[in-house]
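To fix ideas, we give here one paired sequence and structure record:
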Amino acid sequence: MRHVLYMVGLLVLGNAWAQYFEPPPMNPDPLADPDYDASAARVSDLPESDNARVVPREQTRVAVLGYHNFSNTKPVSEMLMRTTEFQEQMEYIHKAGLRVISMQEFLDWRLGKRQLPARCVLITLDDGWRSVYTDAYPILREYGYPFTLFLYTKYLTGRGDSMTPQMIREMQQHGATIGSHSTSHLYPKSWKHVAAQGEEAFTQLMDTEMGGSFQKLSELFGPIKTYCYPGGYITPPMLERLPEYGYVAAFTVIPGKVAVDEDVLQIHRYMIFGTDSSIFRRAMDFSSSATAAVGQQIAHSRSASPVPPFPVYPAPNAQASEDLPMISAQMGTVPGADLTSVQMVVSGFGHVPAKVDTSTGTVQWSPPLRLYQPPVTVIVSWKNTDGTAHKASWFFQLRRGTDAQQKSQDE
């Protein structure tokens, strides 16, 4: 009898031990990367004490997660995920022993006022969908996780699928921090349309969308410190104006782990889509083999892509004026290149509408605004006529004018 009890005890202990070390199963992922190593995301291999221990600031990595809408009955889309899947993801974070930090803790760490554990998670939810209150909030409160709501003020009506200010104030009492997602949530097309009307029109739009939202949200919910770019659209004037409105940090939709030297106005964020659970798994990959910006095309390209095998301007690692009139690549000598397939990505602008002259093989794009954040990375991708894909990249520095240099010294 004693032997039987001993064996039963071992079985129970073994099941508990396996449950501790094995993350909860994720939903099947139809878009999963066949080369993705799921074992790399098993951060629970470390004892809980190691996950909780603070480390020097430069050793911390933060995975910022971005969510939108939730439902267990409505059709799943990029912006809407199953509530049950959100529950599974929060349980994964819990079992992995990861530290979920508040926005204030994140800002204190980034600005040099706090140390954190090596692996942290920051949870953000965009727009102001009512399901954040009805579906996500109870789960977050169950786990005791702090979170940030990025709200756009025209959606705070309480009508339809939107939340009321009263709902938001209740969540503030239980772990929610409020950030701005603009006034109207304009998409890049609208911003570009106004930018084409001139600097004055664009400034007025920024005052309304970024400044107006800051003021309104501050009146409703107290001090606002952070901004989230709608559609991930960023321009140099936005970067210049954000601190003037009172923001101390801003978040993108570009995935990647956040390190202490992250540009505080262009913070990486993993947007967790309802149609692709692999994004969450990549966000949870804190293994040493993971790059500091997994999936972040521009940062990865500096070391992973070859220098272009064709003339480019500005030349790689050259110094160029911040008022650069043209970025170009001479691809006429690339064997078998299908020039109609060429695409160009420029840091700070994303995909740009580069013009391709098939007669000369010239690919060029003129920045509509002054370049701001050095170094500037350019990625050119194309396909050959046989269908094979290729990519090359380079980066160059910016040579500031006298006024800009003086402003930098004054700051």
User: Anything to note?
Assistant: The domain at 301-410 is CATH 2.60.40.1220 (Immunoglobulin-like). Residues 1-46, 289-305, 402-411 have pLDDT under 50 and may be disordered. The chain has two domains: 35-295, 301-410. Residues 13 and 116 are 32 Å apart (CA to CA).
